[in-house]
Fold these 4 entries.
Entry 1:
Amino acid sequence: MQAQTAPAGTQAAALEVLAEFASSMSSDSNVEQMLMRFLEIMVRLSGAKAGAVRVLTTDGGHLRTVGSIGLPDALVEKERFVPLECGICGQATISQHTQSNQVLTVCQKQVRHMYVANQCKTIYAVPLRHKGKVLGVYNLFMAGEHCLTQDVRYLFNSISEHLGMALENARLTRENMRISLMNERTMLANQIHDSLAQTLAYAKMRLSVLNEAIADGEQERANRYLGDVEEAVDMAYAEIRNLITQFRDRIDPRGLVFALQEMVASFRKKANADVDFLNVAQEVELTPEEEVQVFHIIQEALYNISKHARARHVIVTLDLHEGQYIANVADDGVGLPGGASGVGKSFGLTIMRERAAKLNGELTIESRPAGGTLVRLTFPAHPPA
């Protein structure tokens, strides 16, 4: 069988398909729906009696049927999962090129349905490949033994390569989502360990010495330990509320600047203070992980201001100077007890410094000469990828 040249009508249809394909690649987020839509187009252009599209399973050993056109339900159910090396699909997988042959010759062990035997004589397998790896296969069942034209074969090969890329991108997206979920859970676990767990451990130790003091009849010492326990419980309650707030306030998907604008607007209402945000950096180029760290550092700084500072005016600034991002949170509140030396080792500040370390940056907290406190985060800027 020799490939034929497509008539002018088929060439025009091919151009329409390419235009639709380019549009779908940029707008369609559901890869399997895209695969089915182009199965319909391939069946129509090839004049096939039926068609199916299959994709590689996660274990890499089977092909899963995404959908079909013109095939009986019983046959589709029977071939919902087929071995990767099965029949003509296996030939296309190994060679990474379109294969064709008589249906009953290459699929006699798998296809025993009367419909295929009576209606279809030739089967095509068009592999979906990306970077030397086959990710799926299109099957076209033809009524006769004629070949696809050269133009149609070229079109199908081109589409299959781009659909293979879409399948690979979808797989990478799923992997990235899993990694993001794992990272978020790890971050939550670290925060609980660094704040709530340590506070409760302190309370547990104080309960132990409290029991000893009660057993020894030392009322004054017992009262002192009881006060320590009450303070630890209050701190734990405040920390759990802070954690809930942090993980309820998600960062804006449009980026850090929009997220900070929304955070400042929300803080302005809650704190009953005059709060401003000034973005001097203009273009902010950060990775999603960096944005999350900066967002939570500033969030924690604002939370501390609302809790302790009694400030009337707060300004948040973001700047880029000599290859360094600089984020400032300044207030006109009561300032630090004892000046800069009054900065303690609270769990909130510890977590802020750990976040700064993840940015390869530095966090400083100092008293302002005019009154109030300045929290400054500096970290290196990376050239955009």
Note: The chain has two domains: 8-175, 251-385.
Entry 2:
Amino acid sequence: MEDPQQRYRANLQGEVDSASLYRTLSQTEKNPELAQVYSRLGAVEEAHAEFWKRKIDAIGQRVPSVRPSFRTRALAWLARRFGPAFVLPSINKLEQMDSGAYDAQPEAVAGGLPAAERSHARIIAALASPSAGAFSGPTIARLEGRHRGLGGNALRAAVLGANDGLCSNLSLVMGVAGADLAPHAILVTGLAGLLAGACSMALGEWLSVSTTRESYQRQIKTEADELEQVPEEEEEELALIYQAKGLPEDQAKALAQRLIANKETALDTLVREELGIDPEELGGSAWAAAGTSFLLFAMGAIFPVAPYFVLAGLPAVIASLAASGLALFAIGAGTSLFTGLGVLFSGLRQILVGFAAAGVTYGIGKLIGVAVTG
């Protein structure tokens, strides 16, 4: 038979995590309207936590003292350090995954929890990627600009950028180590791989962001020309956009007319609402994106090669694998912030995948070394 105590405790942990995270978002959010939204979400999650505490007490079990999980503490730290928008895409994904968790639990259904959780998931989805009917007017523009500036998910990009550097350079170093090259040759090869990979990533990111900015600038210029030549059509388009977002027709037309009448803000509003572009960001700085890409790749790539500065032979290989293993586990733990999987599982899986790739290249390097040296 099912043990309700274990399920109740798991539910309590989830509610404590959510309440703690929303309280942190409320405290760090600079927009007072959004801060109030997060505060209300946190209050509901705290009420849900009390619900499960009463259920645990009702079956004669001691109510445990629950603290936020590692994932929640990590997301809260990132929110305090970089702002709520940095972690919102990850929180959104976790909310969507958990939105149906209570549907098959009779106690939760009787308490009205499934509807509340689905409501929370919709609210967070709207904040992470505003959609029709969620908000209107300037609020949507502010949210769209802030979150598009993240490039979808900055946290995920940072973790995966470091992972690219670590896995590629670990495979390279193990490959030349398997070929039994001299220690200084392995060190030079590892450093060359770090620089080549980091420069390649930086150049690719620079080109990507530069191309995006140029495309946005062309679209804004076209929009400015249309606003100058056919303002009536632009007003009609804006009214239709607001209708699609849920405003009644008369209110949508009145709002569009008011916005178009103000020439200073008309273009800004049209660009945000019609094109979905933040004119202040334009996809971000190409140089900043390139520099960040370079550093993230290099941070991951340094772990496999660093031991060769002081060691040689088998000790260097073991130290390289140990340092890389720790970094792989940390990256795996980082991916758990946006996958919802356990930290231990994610970390060990990352080690397994990274070492498997390193094992393949080490074996190939061994074969090549034997073939070349005879």
Note: Residues 130-152 have pLDDT under 50 and may be disordered.
Entry 3:
Amino acid sequence: MKKSGKERVLVVCNSTGPTKIDQDFSKELRTEDWETENDVLKALRTLGHDCDLLGVFDSTDVITEKIRRYCPNIIFNLVERFKGEAAYDRDIASFFELLGVPFTGSGTTGLTLSKNKGISKKILSYHKIRVPAFVILHHGKPVHRPSRLHFPIFIKPLSEEASLGISQASFVENDDQFIERVRFIHETMGQDAIAEEYIDGRELYVSVLGNKQLRVFPIREMKFSQVPEDEPKFASYKAKWDKAYRKRWGIRNQFAGGLTEGTEEKIKKLCRKIYRLLCIRGYARFDLRLTSEDEIVFIEANPNPILSECEDFAVSARKGGVPYPQMIQKILNLSVARNGY
């Protein structure tokens, strides 16, 4: 069901500390950390919608009261964590569902299935989609490598996003490194770890928009032009977010070229299947590896990815013929059309 006309949109995002209902975020909106919030608000106002901004940290009371006072038609959900925990974004979605206000992006089911890297891989493996061999190493349990998992191995937090907890030390080649990295995640980050076989290949990002009808945008790729040929190449936190590091190693995101005949369509078809299997709504980005034999390997699903104008989702949408304000409007329309998940 397509919505048109002016809406009352409450943009809900994260803050670094407790907030008030009428808090002024104009200072934060001028910073790089709030680029997405600023871009979304500007687009909503360009589209003619009435909008307001609420930051949340550790209390749902401020959300309830803001909704009571502002009476939004739609919540634009930019919440990525709650009480500092990335896994709690699903609980905020659940809270919106209980309140009965339409909101953008995935609901509780899609967030739960997608953002636990072990659950998503188990589901997709069952449906004959290739995923890396993996094992979950639970916090508080003895650390050992199962014999079926062979080196090199890649180790990361089970439920984090944006490459948090991923560094060069995530790539391990012996048992001592394996134990050290798992313990680092357990003790420093306080959460479970996932260890999986390292897949050598191209790092691809595929953006998908829709609920029942899915639109797959042009494929992006992270390139490592200055990293030696025999070195592992993956999206560490620095490789994604540290501009000086990216420049030093020639890391850049660009549209994927040189795909063999039929490969692009296979990737898009696979991503539509994954989107539905993981019960995702609204929009998502998938991280894949493409091996030298053109085998597609699922790495991660990212429902509700970053929406700033300069990030991969919006860049792909623009290349696919959807300018930024129109993309934001489509995401709003999809919030009204939700049906479960």
Note: The radius of gyration is 20 Å.
Entry 4:
Amino acid sequence: MSVCSTEVVPMPLELDAVLNGEPHPDDAWLRRLGIGPVDLSVVIVGTDESEYLRECLTSIYSQEYGFNLEVIVVDNGSVDGTLKMMDEEFQQVRCIRNDTRYPRSRNNNIGYQAAEGKYVLFLDPDTRVLPGAFESMMGFLDQNPEAGMCGCRLIDVDGSVQMSSRTWQTPLTVLLRRTRLGACPLFRPVVDRHLMADWDHNSVREVDWIQGAAMMVRREAVADVGLMDDVLLRYSEDIDWCFRFWKLGWKVFYVPGGSVIHAYRRTSNRPLVSLKDGVNHTLWMHLRGFLRTYNRQALFPFEKRCIDILGATAGILLLSPLMVLTALLIKLDSPGPVFFVQERVGRDGRRFFMYKFRSMRQGAEDLLSALQHLNEATGPVFKMREDPRLTGIGRHLRRWSLDELPQLFNVLQGTMSLIGPRPLPSLQVDFGNARSLRRLRATPGLSGLWQVSGRSEIDFSRWVDLDIRYIAQQSVEQEILILLSTFPAVVRGKGAY
């Protein structure tokens, strides 16, 4: 991958004074010179679309903005003279050229990683930006910190409004949209609801997903969610990304305050295979993308629950002699119940009772306030290597994580999972910290990324990072990998106190 980037900006006579820190009445010069932080990065990915790209860039640079703007074009190995056109006509654009052609999702990631703006807008080359579109989306994100992504009104070249926001796809909506069944009066309302065609698109609305033709994202949200899935070839990366935003509690909005003309070229509405055109590769990519995203949205929760039930049942049957022996040792070691039952905060803030083998003496919770000054953990949690409240057998239970075994029954109940974020007592949950609360977007687990990465040796901010990463990347493969990593982590005992 090679990079070509040339910056040509007309210089004011007062440039020396500006650079020396002297005030200048025309702040627009500072923006044109790129002095100060970038407010908005526009990322455009194109392949052999020089004419569309010329119109798109012209529409952007024909306007005046009250903020710092940069435009990044990721050229996906074009051979139609795109680079020559940009060198001659748009030298102020940062251009990244791929020697090898990549899927659009990977190109979007390349553009995002090069961007410096507070917000990043992904824009298709077959668009023309009308005045106020950028300002409308940026203003909305400024005023709504819970919004991780938004899209503006897309209009066709004939002036009609495109259905650019949708509900989640299902096998039924895919079937109806790809066959003549969708035009049947019986099923047309289903298609209209999916396309949100029963709404005038003149008001702000939270939606499931928006088309990637004009999609603006907040950097803090992408830090949580991660980049696009570059395995997806095309046409589903925006759906998948919106779903991952939604999973972590970042909202997606349609904002009609500004408009972008989009030359929507839908080639997927032809049959998958025809005698005239052969294989419809565009539709094939649509279907492949749908299967991958639908697996994450609908099939994964079912697969995860099956793993939980089978794993917990097998664990209880195999470990029942060990659990009986552990209960007997606890009873012989110190007075008090065998089990410790504590209210914890689960998925979406729901409370539940978590079961553990008792590892502390009776009344241990009443002594917590007196030990707070000895807390070795960061954040709202309490951890102490040499906790005086531990019983003799309790120290060994903690070292080998045997006190956690009764949570297999929580897994069978469905209040916990084999893998997930560690549930905390309500007093240790920082309900005022929005990022910390994103941990509650998944069912809590007996094991997880935090547990296999060092447990109490990890500070709380990193703990939150690991849980958010787990939620954003949930898959059967990740579940199995963490399960396989759990036993070695228990044997090492790192952070087990």
Note: Confidence is low (pLDDT under 50) at residues 2-32, 266-275.
